[in-house]
Design brief:
Largest sheet: 4 strands, antiparallel
Structural class: alpha+beta
Number of strands: 4
Strand content: 15-25%
Order of helices and strands: EEEEHH
């Protein structure tokens, strides 16, 4: 699976990073003031996102602490994901509210 995110100041391309495997590749690019594309280097820490999610939730429940992701953030992420699927299905821009 390939995830591509493009913005006015750069882009990120992630391949094989969504799932239970702790592998994949990520390429990030920035657009400088002259409009030239520059590759950014970084060392991503690939982990099993499902394991981390369960561990964070369990820790919050067991220790009566605030989870690292708020309910509001989780809801927003779900709305964005649903809009992305709908936009792809209907080949149109979908506004997220």
């Amino acid at each position: 699976m390939l995830l591509e995110v493009y913005g006015t100041k750069g882009s990120i391309l992630a391949q094989g990073t969504i799932g239970q495997m702790e592998t994949g590749t990520i390429s990030a690019y920035a657009i400088d003031a002259d409009g030239k594309r520059k590759e950014l280097s970084f060392d991503p820490n690939f982990t099993n996102m499902y394991t981390k999610e369960v561990e964070a939730f369990t820790e919050a429940v067991m220790n009566d602490t605030v989870p690292p992701v708020s309910f509001e953030d989780g809801l927003w992420i779900q709305k964005v994901a649903e809009a992305a699927y709908l936009a792809q299905e209907e080949a149109r821009v979908v506004e997220v509210k």
